[in-house]
Amino acid sequence: MVALDGPSGTGKTTVARTLAGRLSARYLDTGAMYRLVTLAVLRSGTDPGDRAAVAHLAHDAEFSIGTDPERPEVRLAGQDVAAEIRGPEVTGAVSAVSAVPQVRELLVARQRRIIADVLAETGGIVVEGRDIGTTVAPDAPLKVYLTASAEVRAARRNTQDTAAGRQTSVAEARESVQRRDRLDSSRAASPLRAAGDAVPVDTSELTIDQVIVALAELARRRGLLAGCPADAEVGS
Q: Bias category Polar residues: which stretches (predicted)?
């Protein structure tokens, strides 16, 4: 298992999915789970700041998330919402929802079940989020904490928004990622921070391929590639 943490805009999702595919492993985006609950909250008209109501709704929400790195399905009440959970409304409310202790407790338990099931069935998974190495899977054999400068992260977020048809400026994107950082790192429940034994990787000046090669080499050193069909390729 690879636990991949870091703030918004560091390339976690692209790196995690690509690495999982390279290692013939499964993939879990825990952030998408918090976004699913946030979307459920917004659709119900619930105030994201009403913690009791949010906790109750999270318990009752029907959602599913896939672990195929090529096609990670994200469904709410059976509906594909992969694009909708990345919209500005969800992005603006997800920190408040994810800060609710009962929501985190519920989703962490679900994440651990998914990880355990995958490891029992296939033997490998790359999990991305903000508290994987510290809370969800503190015993993961490889923990990585991705970082990048605020300027680079803002530019990446702006590019993502533009590609998705959302018109924002780099300045707005920078304000958004910094706001998310403040909220995620200051929350009482599972704040954003690097695990003590996580390997820091600054992606500011690296291409995705360079990051993947570096992480694959780390996985090789930890003995995580034994029996992996891609073993002969990951370090190339």
A: 160-170
9 is in an annotated binding site: yes
The answer to the question of whether 8 is labelled as a binding residue is yes
> Which residues share a beta bridge with 71?
none
88 appears as a binding residue in the annotation? no
Q: Tell me the domain boundaries of the chain.
A: 2-221
Superfamily for the 2-221 domain: P-loop containing nucleotide triphosphate hydrolases (3.40.50.300)
CB distance 187 to 135 below 8 Å:
no
Q: Is 11 annotated as a binding residue?
A: yes
- CA Rg value for the chain: 17
167: number of Cβ within 10 Å? 8
Q: Please say whether the beta carbons of 46 and 53 come within 8 A.
A: yes
By DSSP bridging, strand 63-65 and strand 74-76 are antiparallel
Query: What are the strands of the beta sheet with 125-129, ordered from one edge?
Result: 26-29, 125-129, 2-5, 142-147, 199-202
143 annotated ligand-binding residue: no
Strands 26-29 and 142-147 come out as: unpaired
Written as six digits, the tokens of 15 are 């790196």
Q: Is 13 annotated as a binding residue?
A: yes
- Residue 7 assigned to a binding site: yes
The model's pLDDT over 7-54, given as tens digits with 9 standing for 90+, comes to 888 889 999 999 999 999 999 999 999 999 999 999 999 999 999 999
